[in-house]
Design goal:
The chain is an alpha/beta fold. It is built from 16 helices and 12 strands. It has a 7-stranded mixed β-sheet with strand order 2-8-7-6-5-3-4, sandwiched between helices.
Length: 379
């Protein structure tokens, strides 16, 4: 009997990608072993954070790194670091920003539900419309604490490129911080944003890197990353409630080590084969269209199968199909691109996405067969 059996929770097959609501990803045995080892002894947490950050910085080819609770926590900590620096009195003052610079300039194309994490630290967003360098510079004033940037598959609007924004920020003596939570693979993105001028950026530790879901990385320049650490647990700043345990920290170090040494070509070949099998099967069904696709942007470059159909002809809506898959046996989750949810990113039509990276061996066949059953049942 598993722990899920004891709790009465029935697991799923996830073809939905590394979604937080479904548990992120699955940790390799080496990562769970590191977690178990770390759980058996006490350790000074500040020393562990510093040592882990040093090792991850080496692996990721950046000046400094810090393990945080997740990418959202990373956004809050980066914002706090821009506002306080390493000043302990200012750190204790947050989220009260009276007398402190607390404005963050953001391009309209980068607005999304995760940017509210800046406000946890007392930050306030100043939005500029379009990809307008002059408007960005004009928005800078004595209250500006930094410029905020986002790379994500759902931010599809036109925006100034990160190197140009970094140049503007640095010319005005401001830091550029970025949310790039899901932007690996490619592995080179771990250091790409540093080389393009970002002073600090955050990634999820529990997506493609396959560490604990309750972890994230902050990478970047030494002074700003150190200020993030001082705002975080075990210190008494706004990050005190964003705790990462010794087990999660050690597990993420191992996960990053495994990730940067992975055979990505072999992994991509497996993903492509799974996607091709799904597309072949779905394309054989009348009124169904299936195609291979990558997420928007330069990161999270994992192919997936996108599927849509004539709802009237098949007698089933996309939402009904998602529910049927989740309610069936075995339980299967796919990603549902619903314009009512993702319309802000320019998505105007419904589709289901089958992601190969969260499937285990043979599960693509199971998912394909269930999809065929669901889509042809009412015909």
């Amino acid at each position: 009997m598993t722990i899920y059996d004891e709790l009465g929770v029935k697991p799923i097959i996830s073809a939905a990608g590394t979604l937080t609501m479904l548990g992120g990803s699955l940790m390799p045995p080496e990562v769970t072993d590191a977690m178990a080892q770390a759980s058996r002894q006490f350790v000074p947490m500040e020393e562990l954070h510093i040592a882990a950050g040093r090792r991850i910085a080496e692996l990721c080819r950046v000046e400094a790194a810090h393990v945080c609770a997740c990418a959202s926590a990373g956004i809050s900590l980066m914002a706090a670091a821009c506002i306080t620096g390493g000043d302990r009195d200012k750190i204790r003052q947050l989220p009260d920003t009276a007398g402190l610079k607390n404005k963050f300039i953001i391009q309209s194309a980068h607005r999304n539900g995760f940017d509210r994490a800046l406000c946890v630290a007392g930050g306030r967003l100043v939005e500029i419309k379009g990809a307008d360098a002059q408007a960005l510079e004009a928005a800078i004033n004595e209250e500006t604490a930094g410029i905020y940037y986002t790379h994500a598959w759902f931010c599809t609007g036109e925006a100034l490129p990160l190197p140009q924004v970094a140049e503007i920020a640095h010319r005005h003596g401001l830091p550029l911080i970025a949310d790039v939570a899901a932007e690996v693979p490619p592995v080179e993105n771990l250091w790409r944003y540093f080389n393009e001028g970002a002073d600090a950026y955050t990634l999820s530790g529990g997506k493609a890197i396959r560490g604990p879901q309750s972890t994230g990385l902050i990478l970047g320049r030494k002074e700003l990353v150190e200020a993030c650490r001082l705002n975080d647990c075990p210190h008494g700043g706004i990050g005190r409630g964003m705790k990462t345990g010794k087990e999660e920290i050690c597990a993420l170090v191992k996960a990053v080590d495994l990730y940067v040494h992975k055979d990505f070509r072999a992994e991509m070949a497996v993903w492509e084969a799974r996607v091709a099998r799904v597309i072949e099967a779905m394309s054989a069904i009348q009124h169904v269209r299936a195609w291979r696709e990558f997420p928007f942007g330069d990161g999270q470059l994992i192919p997936h199968a996108s599927i849509t159909w004539d709802e009237g002809a098949l007698g089933i809506t996309h939402a009904e199909a998602v529910k049927a898959l989740l309610d069936g046996e075995p339980r299967i989750a796919v990603q549902f691109i619903n314009p009512q949810v993702y319309g802000f990113g320019g998505y105007q039509s419904k589709e289901l996405r089958v992601h190969p990276s969260t499937l285990q061996e043979g599960e693509d066949v199971i998912v394909t067969e269930r999809l065929k059953q669901v889509l042809t049942a009412k015909r």
